[in-house]
Specification:
The chain is 39% helix and 24% strand. The chain has 131 residues and is an alpha+beta fold. The protein folds into 2 domains: 4-54, Alpha-Beta Plaits, CATH 3.30.70.100; 64-129, 2-Layer Sandwich (Alpha-Beta Plaits), CATH 3.30.70. Strand 4 (92-98) and strand 5 (103-108) form a beta hairpin.
Length: 131
C-alpha cells in the first residue's frame, strides 16, 4: 500500500465482499485483518482479491484466530477447564471461552493443528466437563 488512501480503498473493497463481516487495514503496519464466513469465502479467494487490488500479499501463516459458537457451558469453572484442555494441544496459542456469549475464540498455528482438530477437541472437552 502506497498511501493511507490506498489502504482505505482496499479496506472498502474487501469489507464490501459477500461473506466478509469486517475488514480492517493498517497502513502503518501494512496489514489487513478480515473476519469472514469460511462457508462463503476461502482464504485463497481473499488472497486473490487482495492481491488484485493491493498488488502483493504477504501472509503470516503462523497465527489464525477463529471464533466458534458453542453451547452447553454454564459456568466460569467449566469454561476455564475447557480453556486449559485446549491449551494442552500443540498449535493452540490461546483459547478463551465466553460462556455467556456461547463462543470460543481460539488463536492457533495452522502449521501445527488444523481447524477440524480444534473443533473436535473443543466439542470433546465441552462434552467431558458437562456430563
Amino acid at each position: 500500500m502506497m498511501c493511507p488512501a490506498c489502504a482505505k480503498g482496499i479496506e472498502k473493497i474487501v469489507a464490501g465482499m459477500p461473506g466478509v463481516a469486517k475488514a480492517s487495514v493498517s497502513f502503518f503496519d501494512q496489514t489487513i485483518a478480515i473476519k469472514y464466513d469460511d462457508r462463503r469465502l476461502s482464504a485463497q479467494m481473499l488472497r486473490d482479491i487482495i492481491a488484485g487490488v493491493a498488488h502483493s500479499v504477504v501472509e503470516d501463516n503462523r497465527r489464525i484466530s477463529a471464533t466458534i459458537p458453542i453451547t452447553g457451558i454454564d459456568s466460569a469453572e467449566c469454561a476455564e477447564r475447557i480453556e486449559k484442555t485446549l491449551a494442552t494441544r500443540e498449535g493452540i496459542i490461546n483459547a478463551a471461552i465466553d460462556f455467556h456469549l456461547e463462543r470460543a475464540r481460539i488463536i492457533y498455528d495452522p502449521r501445527k493443528i488444523n481447524f477440524k482438530n480444534i473443533k473436535t477437541t473443543l466439542l470433546a472437552a465441552v462434552f467431558r466437563y458437562n456430563t
